[in-house]
Design a protein that fits this description.
The chain has about 250 residues and is an alpha/beta fold. The protein has one domain. It has ten helices and ten strands. Strands 1, 3, 4, 6, 7, 8, 9 and 10 form an eight-stranded mixed β-sheet that branches. The two termini are about 30 Å apart. This is Peroxide stress protein YaaA. InterPro entries: YaaA (IPR005583).
């Protein structure tokens, strides 16, 4: 099973690993696109006003541009420690046992605008690049990633659970992947799309999928696994699941 997570705009600072080695990342066939994007970001960082415009940043966020300028020399962290925010707080990898962390490292991967895909344990520096960014002189990120990343994801043998947000899923869709939407249900039975706590619920779901000893092979088996864990999951056909949670 492969569980695809969205990245976060916020990143933990610093690190204790050697500088970025693109060839050491998962899916080495993505190295040419990764190299092009890293070099483009580093070059762009030399023109701060242009970098602000391309990345949608304000002057108060110039530290993000400085991070990009140091991509080749900055220390690295494993991806699951680099990304921060609501989803990763709920995933809480720091509390996993050694065996659970081993399963998480094998099963979890993060969609990235800069790296395409990073394994849970892949060491990366802090950076700033979003799926909707447009870098000067380059095609759209979707145009760059879809022909390179699409075959990598399509070639995975096993169940793929795609928890990426829409803009990251669009970089390289995965045919046949299970997707999960989250709805809240009020006491009167009415439902609404979860917005604020969506990432929290997906982080908890990712934690469950990362640590279970089960190995679901299809959407039906996945639904049964989630229901045994006490989750209210609906399946109306196809590969889409709906996680129904009580209204906050």
């Amino acid at each position: 099973m492969l569980v695809l997570l969205p990245p976060s705009e916020t990143k933990a600072p610093g690190g204790d690993g050697a500088p970025l080695d693109l060839a050491a990342l998962s899916a080495a066939e993505l190295t040419p696109v990764r190299t092009e994007l890293v070099e483009s970001l580093v070059e762009l960082s030399g023109d701060v006003p242009a970098a602000r415009a391309a990345l949608g940043l304000s002057a108060k966020q110039d530290a993000e541009i400085a991070r990009n300028a140091a991509l080749w020399s900055a220390p690295t962290l494993p991806a699951l420690q680099r990304y921060t925010g609501v989803l990763y707080d709920a995933l809480d990898v720091g509390s996993l046992s050694r065996a659970q962390r081993g399963r998480a490292d094998r099963r979890l991967a993060v969609g990235s605008a800069l790296f395409g895909l990073v394994g849970a344990g892949d060491r990366i520096p802090a950076y700033r690049l979003s799926a909707g960014s447009a870098l000067p002189g380059l095609p759209t990120l979707r145009s760059l990633w879809k022909p390179a990343l699409g075959p990598v994801l399509a070639g995975f043998e096993g169940l793929v659970v795609d928890l990426r947000s829409g803009s990251y899923a669009a970089l390289a869709p995965v045919p046949g992947a299970v997707t999960v939407s989250v709805l809240s249900e009020r006491a009167d039975g009415t439902r609404a799309v979860v917005s604020h706590f969506n990432k929290t619920h997906k982080g908890r779901l990712a934690r469950l999928l990362a640590t279970t000893t089960a190995e679901p092979s299809d959407v039906g088996a996945l639904r049964r696994l989630l229901r045994r864990a006490g989750l209210h999951v609906e399946h109306d056909g196809g590969t889409a699941l709906t996680l129904v949670v009580p209204a906050e």
